[in-house]
Amino acid sequence: MNVKIKNLYKKFENKIAVNGINFNISENSTLGLLGPNGCGKTTTIGMILGLIKPSKGEIYIDGLDINKNDRIKLLEKINFASPYIELPKKLTVRQNLEIFARLYGVRDIENSIDQIANDLDLKKFIGKKTGELSSGQKNRVSLAKSLINEPKLLLLDEPTASLDPDIGDFIRGYLEKYKKNKNVTILLASHNMSEVERLCDEVIMMKNGSLVDEGTCNQLIKKHGRSNLEETFLKIARGK
Amino acid sequence: MNLSKIYALSLRHIFLIKSSFPRLLDLLYWPTIQIFLWGFISKFFTLNSTYYNNTVGVILTAAILYDFLFRSSISYNMMFLEEIWSRNFTNLFISPIKISEIIAALTLTAIFRTLIGMVPASLIAIPLFGVSIFSVGPALIFLLISLYIFGVTLGLLVTAGLIRFGPSFENIAWASLFFLAPLGCIYYPVEILPEWLRVIANALPLVHLFEEMRNILMNNTVSYLPIMKGFLISLLYFTFGVFIFYLAYFGARVRGTLINMGE
């Protein structure tokens, strides 16, 4: 799926959250969405998912405007994971995955769950209640939920936030493999710059609701005369 | 509407009830307590009141029907609140399910949740107090359907409030039915109310439904006209409730509250 964002603008009462941004994500590529807290990343993701109505501008996914065309049809091919939203805690991992598999119209539910449990190493705790899992396990379950429908567009909001380096690396490795094997377009919002360098083909930087820079990681590092993306991010975020 | 998606959402709540004994106990406990409380009140009134002296069980039947309405509404609210409490709200609204399917799933599952408590409680009343709500006869089905539609409508309005104002609206969820109960004339005829309040009371389906329930039990005659009136008023409010729910949803999309709704 390709995504075209045209002059996207969102105002909440007196605050401009997103200020007329434009960007594209080409099919089967990964775009990093970077910026300091409160810069408008989550609002942008919310608008792409159709959860937030833009004040102005258009969002085209495979040429269809999510606010005008059949949002439900588009959502069947999209999914989202974030550590800030959770799955019902009293349900087991398998029950949660079954419910979302049904909601997304997955055909072979049992096999799909078994496959994803195998890939993400969920088998040991698939019968446990989701609320009883460690944050690393919960994160993998959340990722499994976001992949249950084999999305063509995957939105990830800090998928490895608060994870230990080992599990973080496991998830990054899995996402790399997944992208190689499946035709998937990814929008990744992250504060982990090494993760962005490893996973993203291109990045866009947001600040105060506006898009302030874009390019490949190497292009941005070179342009700002820094040695890595973290330093580049700090330079842009602090305006130095 | 996609039945498979409606089933999926219902399954989420069925799994929840099945997996938790305290939740199941909670569903059974309150209706049973109500039966005991109103059973003894009913017994006292039938022995000491001229209005009720020939009609054992009018109060208890009214209490059971009112509790059915109450449980329907609370069940609907509770299932919606579960999504907020578990922070699953965003997952639900980004999955490819229509608002009409969410409403259908909550409506269908609320009856399941309500009956878990109401069926045993109604059956207990038979040996304990000699009162069977089934003595209302076939009209009982129409009374229950009308009350259920109205209960779900109140649930719809409260959940619309939750979407609009956030979890702080939760307290209204519990208070909504207590506010309407005095006007519903559940245990007394509408004539008890001052004339100006009767106008409001008559605009509610409860007055017509409970009035006819008393008529059936006290006079052994059935008039389907008030039941039909109650049913149509319930249906009208239900349509209004659906409209308000959609309005709240579209308003929440504008305000951006769907993405971070949680405790």
Report on the structure:
By secondary structure, chain A is α/β, with parallel strands linked by helices. Chain A folds into 2 domains: 3-77 and 151-238, P-loop containing nucleotide triphosphate hydrolases (Rossmann fold, 3-Layer(aba) Sandwich); 85-150, no CATH class. Helices cover 37% and strands 25% of the residues of chain A. In chain A, the strands form 2 sheets. Chain A has a 6-stranded mixed β-sheet with strand order 6-7-8-3-9-10, with helices on both faces. In chain A, strand 1 and strand 2 form a beta hairpin. The longest helix of chain A has 17 residues, at 165-181. The longest helix of chain B is centred in the C-terminal third of the chain and has 32 residues, at 224-255. Chain B is mainly α. Chain B starts with a helix and ends in an 8-residue tail after the last helix. The radius of gyration of chain B is 19 Å and the shape is globular. The mean pLDDT of chain B is 88. Chain B has helices at residues 3-19, 21-48, 58-85, 89-94, 99-129, 139-165, 170-184, 195-202, 205-219, 224-255. Chain A binds chain B through residues 10, 12, 17, 42-43, 45-46, 49-53, 72-73, 75-76, 78-80, 82, 84-92, 95, 98-100, 102-105, 129, 145, and chain B through 2, 4-5, 7-9, 11-12, 15-16, 19-20, 82, 86-91, 93-98, 250, 253-256, 258-260.
Given as residue ranges, the uncertain stretches of chain B (5+ residues, pLDDT < 50) are none
Strand content of chain B: under 5%
Largest interface: A-B, 39 and 33 residues
Helical fraction of chain B equals over 70%
As for the number of domains of chain B, it is 1
| Helix/strand order of chain B, N-terminal first | HHHHHHHHHH
Tally of separate helices of chain B: 10
Mean pLDDT of chain B: 88
What do the pLDDT scores of chain A average to?
91
Q: Quote the distance from N terminus to C terminus of chain B.
A: 30 Å
> Secondary-structure element sequence of chain A?
EEEHEEHEHHHEHEHEEHH
* CATH level-3 fold name of the largest domain in chain A: Rossmann fold
What kind of assembly state do the chains in view correspond to?
heterodimer
Provide the CATH superfamily of the largest domain in chain A: P-loop containing nucleotide triphosphate hydrolases
Using the alpha-carbon principal axes, give the shape of chain A: globular
